[in-house]
Design brief:
Shape: globular
CATH architecture of the largest domain: 3-Layer(aba) Sandwich
Mean pLDDT: 91
Number of domains: 2
CATH superfamily of the largest domain: ANL, N-terminal domain
Radius of gyration: 22 Å
Helix content: 25-40%
Oligomer: single chain
Amino acid sequence: MNIRVAIAYSCILFYNPNIILFLKKIISLLKHPSLYNEFCKQHLDNIILHSYRTTTYYQEIFDKAGLVRNGRVYMDRFNLVPILDKEIIRKRKYDLKSTKTKRIFTNTSGGSTGEPVQFIQDNVYYARMVADTLLFSFLNGKHPGQKEIKLWGSERDIFEGTIGPKEKFVNLFFNRTFLNSFKLTDKMISEYIDEIKRQKPVQIWTYTDSILELAKYINQNDTDVFSPRNIICTAGTMYPEIRSEIQKAFPESRIINQYGSREVGQIACQTENDESIMIFSHSNFVELVDPDMQEIITEPYRPGKVLITNLNNYSMPLIRFDIGDIAEYAPKKDQKYESFTHFAKLHGRDNAHFISKDGHKIHGEYFTHLFYDKPWINNFQVIQKSPTWVNILFMKAPGNDMDDRDVEDIIRKIKLVLSEDVKVDFVEVDSLNKLESGKYQFVRRNF
């Protein structure tokens, strides 16, 4: 262990020893799958019983579902618990708050599907969330203290703690450099590429669309750049074209898909030598349900709505919380596990699926495929305004004229999956807006 790694671990231990204790426990348990499985099941029982005993909302709905009786949890009744959504949280925020709380604070959702929602969290949740952040790097061969660049696009994160004195102190001891990617210009991109070459980080932790912008610049300008060991991408859907573009720019790097949220912390991450995405079952119990029928999905490769039961937040428990995403399971690696342990694919936001007049859903990836390898398009956003109206915002690449044949082909393929009478508008713009969270959504349904 080098001196920077030792300093980073010492600082974490001094700041909050519970972070290191939880991290070490999970790393140890992962070496023994049966023990890890039992740990996850016990924590699920614990949060259910705590929620039942200390919150008005869960006592009410668990009684109706028959989930808890005589101090025992009957998991065969779990699917009868109503799905929790943001509207319920807005209406019953105080009924969801536990009567037993310690050192609580308020966090707010990113608002990528509408109005942000406030959540109550606590110091136990925070320590375990930080431990999981360290864990997904550790599982990919990177320790705290090894050189890292954080290319981050959330304006709120920036102003609420990324550039303050405390965060600068943390970055110093973690050997981390912060680069603001909320609004990227060619000048900034060139400077960031030089910074990557100068620092030679072990890892870049980045918004997916932020590193994509760097990758496109590198590929278009045939620019030399250093390839770190890991590029961990979060806060955006990793479409195949995006992965390909980033990999081309950083040929020696492993492009890693990481999935988390403000509401529940780290949910899943790719790990070394595994293309599927490991679910952090010790912190979040994951279910997939059919978006229309709401039935539990029990087979791999079938897309479903992601429901999260967070196992760490005892101050405002979130049970069967609809996080607004679509994913599909990978086949079980070990049949002894009762639950799926990995995702095969993360499809992104539910509103990235377009809906035709006859009610059929078309995944957003279909539309992103239409715009890659078009030299005249620098960036794009496909917005479905109604079942019969699609608006395409695009930024034209410098020095390239709009190709009418490409436009006709794109319109034809959109009509093929929606309907012949769908209206498709192309609108050239100078810039494309990000969501309030700093995320960028290539495909979005507005109804």
